Amino acid sequence: MISEKAKVSKTTVSRFLNGKYDFMSDKTRERIQSIVEDLDYRPNHAARSLKSKKTGFIGMTISDIENPFSSILIKGVSDACMRNEFQLIIANADNSPIKERRDIDSLIDRQVEGIVIYTTGENNEYIKELHEQGVKIVIVDRPLEKLFVDTVTTDSEEATAKMIHQVYQAGFERIAFFTQPSNNIPRILRHKAFLDASKQYVEHPEKLVYIAKEHVNNAEEYVDMLKDYVEKNKGHKLAIFTVNGVVMLNVVQAMNILGLNIPKDIAVCGYDDLNWTNVVGNGISVIAQPSYEVGFQGAKLLIERIKNEEKDYVPKYIEMTSELKMRGSTQLEQRPVK
Amino acid sequence: MISEKAKVSKTTVSRFLNGKYDFMSDKTRERIQSIVEDLDYRPNHAARSLKSKKTGFIGMTISDIENPFSSILIKGVSDACMRNEFQLIIANADNSPIKERRDIDSLIDRQVEGIVIYTTGENNEYIKELHEQGVKIVIVDRPLEKLFVDTVTTDSEEATAKMIHQVYQAGFERIAFFTQPSNNIPRILRHKAFLDASKQYVEHPEKLVYIAKEHVNNAEEYVDMLKDYVEKNKGHKLAIFTVNGVVMLNVVQAMNILGLNIPKDIAVCGYDDLNWTNVVGNGISVIAQPSYEVGFQGAKLLIERIKNEEKDYVPKYIEMTSELKMRGSTQLEQRPVK
DNA sequence: GTGAAAGCGCTAACAG
DNA sequence: CTGTTAGCGCTTTCAC
């Protein structure tokens, strides 16, 4: 098509399209250029991929796209892809490990050159298998149990410990840990950090752990846990640490239902730094994870792996630092209103 | 590969892979089947696309993926795609019309079979051009000025009017409209609906319109607007209607800074039903848009268009009904705490 | 029922 | 500097 009009071979056109201008005269280049622009010509990606074995696709599986946490992570990944001329394909696992597996398969079918996995946490074996088969993978945010593959995550243990210490030292006498089942590493780490950090302030921190059901926004369940906590710890200055943003929202909601005030009745702190947290009460103290950076660095790492095929793979582990944003919710004295 | 092992031609294998079992004996079918399973064989999508002209890709551009509103819309689109065996490719325009254009181009380059556009609102001409060139497009959430192409959206005018009426009738004497520049249709519609509905309750509703800058979370700007509103309307029961969730968050934040109480000092209502809105104060009254459905129906419509090529294109316009969720923020008397 | 052959649109090796 | 040739992995005619 182009080649005919320009009276050159398609090889030359191909060269032009790939920017190999050294291999042709200026005149040829200009001639092709004008025709390409004239026709607004778009090379066919499928054909290109077929021949070159490079699709320019990167896949990403998301444990739950509805989680507000996900969007900023996606943005980081997406930006890193764009900058390197990769096109991102996203698959939403909807919190289902089965769907996650299917998603990964489907991405591989599409010949993605690498996969960014924000995992449900229950496909470790399968991911390992794929990695060993040579599928390029990077794990973001939620590490796998064994670090056999590149991973970018945040410092759950340190950040959690720091927050617990700060809140105890602010004068609160009990901190409860509101969490969900420990089916992924960050939760396990945060749980552990909570117990470790707490034991120097209270006798039985494990009694202060409340585990809510996963994937359910059940106000009642939280109301019950809250009641239990208040009852068993009467006469003390209470606080709650939430394992993630979903739990935090539920806790705040349950407190509203019970007419409990933050922080007068119970202080609240924890993950994540969602945009509403500085709008509730006098602001909730939160741990802000560098999610954009996690996504961006993760994808960058993956792209490096794709570009530089190395013989001996040594998995990289990058842990990014979270920031504590201390706000009104963890002060003993409530900030005067007005 | 497969064909060798099964001692049949690749034609037959191809037939098998495409489920054309009528064209082969049971024995052949079984033989191929077992080999395919053995080798865990995955057909190459690029090659398939090249020949068949069907990539099985659907593209989607998002005006701003960080907007919490986007994720649920994406989910709807994604689900509809999955169900029809399309793979979704997402591109984030980051609120930039220029990037949006590039994204669309890039998707077309990838030979997507159709594009779902959640537009920044400033590429109408270009979208029209593409549509006329035969690119399959569906517009979701934010309609274009002229409805020349399939569109799925919500009933902005009706919902806004309803909310305004309800709040005035609840006894509030002024409702301010906090918005952003009218660079997309829903905002224009909501603005219009606000003015229309308000004029039977106040003299100059246009004086109650406050336009914040776009894309900026500038607490100060909102604080200033808020002060202005309070000052100019002293002695009245005040309310605010927000054009979207971003504005709502900013308004609530600014009220916090000023120490203003919802709804005692000012009632707040508007778009959108973000998960935190029932956790602030006694809950904020909101308009809940059926975003998932908009995404799902939009993609479904697009897929129908892809599957049934028709001669004369008559654009469809689907308007879905939003739900008003009335909560504590618009009650004259504050619900007693505790 | 099955296969041979052609070709989708492109890139890469080799030749000139 | 440029073109010829082969072929990526699949589908699709057409022939047997």
Give the structure's gist in a few sentences.
Chain A has helices spanning 2-6, 10-17, 26-39, 45-52, 68-83, 97-109, 124-132, 156-169, 185-198, 219-232, 245-258, 291-307, and strands at 57-62, 87-92, 114-118, 137-140, 151-154, 174-179, 209-211, 238-242, 266-270, 285-288, 317-320, 323-325. Chain A has 338 residues and is an alpha/beta fold. Chain A has a six-stranded parallel beta sheet with strand order 2-1-3-4-5-11, with helices on both faces.
Structure description:
The structure is a homodimer of 338-residue chains. Chain A is of the alpha/beta class. The first copy, chain A, folds into three domains: 2-40; 52-155 and 291-321, 3-Layer(aba) Sandwich (Rossmann fold), CATH 3.40.50.2300; 156-288 and 324-330, Rossmann fold (3-Layer(aba) Sandwich). In chain A, 43% of the residues lie in helices and 16% in strands. Chain A has twelve helices and twelve strands. In chain A, strand 8 (238-242), helix 11 (245-258) and strand 9 form a beta-alpha-beta unit. Chains A and B meet through helix 4, helix 5, strand 2, helix 6 and helix 11 of A and helix 4, helix 5, strand 2, helix 6 and helix 11 of B. Chain A binds a DNA duplex (16 and 16 nucleotides) through residues 1, 8-15, 17-18, 22-25, 28, 43-44, 46-53.
